[in-house]
Write a structure and sequence with these properties.
This protein is an alpha+beta fold. It has a single domain, classed as Lipocalin (Beta Barrel), CATH 2.40.128. It contains one helix and nine strands; from the N terminus they run αβββββββββ. An eight-stranded antiparallel β-barrel has the order 1-3-4-5-6-7-8-9.
Length: 144
């Protein structure tokens, strides 16, 4: 009987702590976050951008991502709305027909780091061997 009670107590503690971490991430996300750095890897190509926009998370599970890009002295601002959800260690953003699954690498009250990695396989138009590339996107954010 003592073993059953101890096992139940340990399981309850794990469940409470897991739910607590999930709520902590959700609570910390609410508000506006500056995108301090976005690092992208597309196969062999790597790119890093600084201070390119913001994420705004609302308590109702919606949000807005604003990205500013500059090309040849022309600035383009894109605004995308999204739905979001999280676990203790992941963040899911649904933007239109796109779903992004981020691993949360840092979850602090004033700093967040997320990374998404995925693999693309492209078939050859000439019927040759398909090519596979590994891609990733990593965001470092600070609370505004």
């Amino acid at each position: 009987m003592k073993k059953i009670f101890t096992s139940a107590l340990i399981l309850s503690t794990i469940l409470v702590l897991s739910c607590s971490k999930t709520k902590t991430l959700a609570n910390r996300l609410e508000g506006t976050w500056n995108i301090d750095k976005r690092e992208t890897v597309n196969g062999a190509q790597q790119k890093s951008d600084a201070n390119i926009g913001t994420f705004e998370f609302k308590s109702d599970g919606t949000g807005t991502m604003t990205i500013k890009t500059v090309y040849n002295n022309y600035t383009n601002t894109s605004v995308n709305t999204f739905y979001w959800s999280n676990t203790a260690s992941t963040l899911t953003l649904i933007m239109g027909n796109s779903i992004k699954y981020f691993q949360v690498l840092a979850n602090e009250s004033k700093k967040q780091v997320w990374e998404e990695s995925f693999t693309n396989t492209n078939s050859s138009s000439s019927g040759g061997t398909p090519t596979t590339t590994t891609n990733s996107e990593k965001y470092t954010l600070s609370k505004k």
